[in-house]
Design a protein that fits this description.
Length: about 160
């Protein structure tokens, strides 16, 4: 009967049981954290890169392509000062000498465009940016303005 009414006994028992519970939980969590979980195998993706330079060989833009996400990322590394009535347009040049518009590019910063299925380094070895009227060339298969920078489209790996 004295043990039932002894408050220090119950406090001690509560402290010991709480400590034991915390130790058990930490052991279980550390065991789970130590287990090796299999890494999912990612689909192989062809990644591409191009460094576009001006006529003085100064790098202006870096373009990367992710075939898995089907995205082109254009990063302008040297901001361009173009008139309000002009736009920069990105073009893909094929081995046969034809070009296709990929879209408009900002004069500075980063732009993401869709990566067309036909764009690989073998069939489309050249990328170029032209200075076009505001809104770009009216023809997606023909540039109307001069090439302001260009570079080779290369496959990584």
């Amino acid at each position: 009967r004295a043990l039932r009414e002894d408050i220090s006994f119950w406090r001690g028992l509560g402290l010991v049981s709480t400590t034991a519970s915390l130790i058990m939980v930490s052991l279980l969590l550390s065991k789970q954290a130590g287990q090796i979980t299999p890494v999912p195998v990612a689909e192989p993706s062809n990644n591409y890169v191009a460094t576009l330079s001006d006529d003085k060989a100064q790098p202006i833009a870096v373009i990367t392509g992710d075939s898995k996400r089907r995205q082109l990322t254009i990063r302008i590394v040297a901001a361009q000062n173009i008139g309000a009535d002009k736009s920069l347009e990105l073009w893909a040049g094929t081995k046969e000498g034809t070009v296709k518009s990929l879209g408009l590019v900002a004069a500075n910063g980063t732009v993401t465009l869709p990566l067309p299925a036909y764009m690989n380094a073998k069939d489309t070895p050249l990328l170029a940016v032209t200075l076009e009227p505001k809104g770009g060339s009216g023809n997606p298969n023909k540039a109307t303005g001069p090439i302001v920078f260009k570079g080779n489209w290369l496959e990584l790996g």
